[in-house]
Specification:
Structural class: mainly alpha
Protein name: MerC domain-containing protein
Keywords: Membrane, Transmembrane, Transmembrane helix
Distance between the termini: 16 Å
Helix content: over 70%
Shape: elongated
GO molecular function: mercury ion transmembrane transporter activity
GO cellular component, one term: membrane
Pfam families: MerC
CATH class: Mainly Alpha
Number of helices: 4
Number of strands: 0
Largest sheet: none
Length: 122
């Protein structure tokens, strides 16, 4: 059986990677809208990021993560989810996806640092 820290570490890195790609995705969307008329597949990527973010947040929650870090991660996930799902009805919510992704990245980085200090990750 593999040690728990391997899974926790992978989920933190997956969360950081997914949230970072989400920001790049959001930044490139207006450019793609100008360059091409058919980019419906591009909008679907948001849901891929949500799926990966949920997995990373859920798996990180199973580890020995302090409550404030979990609040950052889950708060970022909820904000990101709401901003993606309700974006069509309320376009201003698109702007909330940036701080939501930032909260996810910060939360996962803090968890990596915490686990390194306490020896959960090697």
């Amino acid at each position: 059986m593999l040690p728990q820290f391997l899974f926790s570490s992978k989920s933190d890195w997956a969360g950081i990677f997914s949230a970072s790609l989400c920001v790049v995705h959001c930044l490139l969307t207006p450019l793609l809208m100008v360059l091409t008329a058919t980019f419906s597949w591009w909008a679907g990527l948001s849901y891929v990021f949500l799926f990966i973010s949920f997995y990373a947040a859920f798996d990180t929650s199973r580890a020995h993560t302090p409550r404030p870090i979990l609040l950052l991660i889950w708060g970022g996930f909820v904000l990101l989810t709401l901003s993606i799902i309700l974006e069509d009805a309320f376009p201003v919510l698109h702007k909330f996806s940036y701080p939501a992704s930032l909260l996810l990245v910060i939360g996962h980085i803090l968890n990596l640092r915490h686990c390194k200090k306490c020896g959960t990750h090697e």
